[in-house]
Amino acid sequence: MILETVLVMLLAGSASADAGAPTPAAKEKPEPAHLAWGVNDLGEQLRVHFSPRWAVEARFQMGNASSNEGRVKAMVFGARGYRFFEEHHRCKLYLGLEGAYAQTSIQGSPSIPNSPTGQDINAQSGFGDSSGVAGGPFVGLELRPIRRIAVDLDMGPYLIDLKEKTTGTSSSNWDFVVNAALLFYFF
C-alpha cells in the first residue's frame, strides 16, 4: 500500500512537472527575404515577396543575333507572378505566369546595299521593326546555396505575338522558353 502511494505521488509529481515545463519549440524557419535583385540570362529583374508563397517580379531583357536579313536586336519588358511551394533542403519548386511586351528591329543587312546617302535601306524604311506581346505559364526550381543568394531555373510554353510595323504583317507562334537567373536577396 505504501508502494502504491509512492508510485501515485511520483506519477502525479512528474505529470505536474511536465505540465509546467516548456515544450520544446518547433523549428522555426527564418523569415524569408522580401526583396531581391537578379541577373538573368539576358537582363535584370526585381522580385518582391508578399509572403513565403507569393511573389511578383519586373523583368528587363535585351539581346541581339545575326540573321539573313541583318542584325536583329530585341528588348523585352515583362511582369511575372510566382507561387512557391514548401522549401526542402534549400530548394523550392514554383509555378508562375508571365506577360511581356517585346520590341525588335533589324539593323544592317548583308544582302541589301546601302542607299546613296550611305544609310542602310532597312534602317531608312523601318522594315523589320516589330512589337508585340509574349506570355505563358512556367515551372521552376529555386536553389539557395546560402541564405541571401539563389539560383533560379524555369521553363514553359509561351505564345509570342508580333506585328511588323512597315508591312503590318503579324505572326503568332508558340515557343518553349527557358530562363535562368542569379538572385541576391536584400531583406
Main sheet summary: 8 strands, antiparallel, barrel
Based on Cα principal axes, name the global outline.
elongated
User: How much helix, percentage-wise, in residues?
Assistant: 10-25%
> How many beta-strand runs?
8
Can you walk through the features of this model?
The chain has a single domain (32-185), classed as Porin. The chain has two helices and eight strands, in the order αβββββαβββ. The protein has helices at 2-20, 121-125; strands spanning 35-40, 43-49, 54-67, 70-84, 91-107, 130-146, 149-164, 170-185. It has an eight-stranded antiparallel barrel. β2 (43-49) and β3 form a beta hairpin. The radius of gyration is 29 Å and the shape is elongated.
Brief rundown of the structure:
The protein is 13% helix and 58% strand.
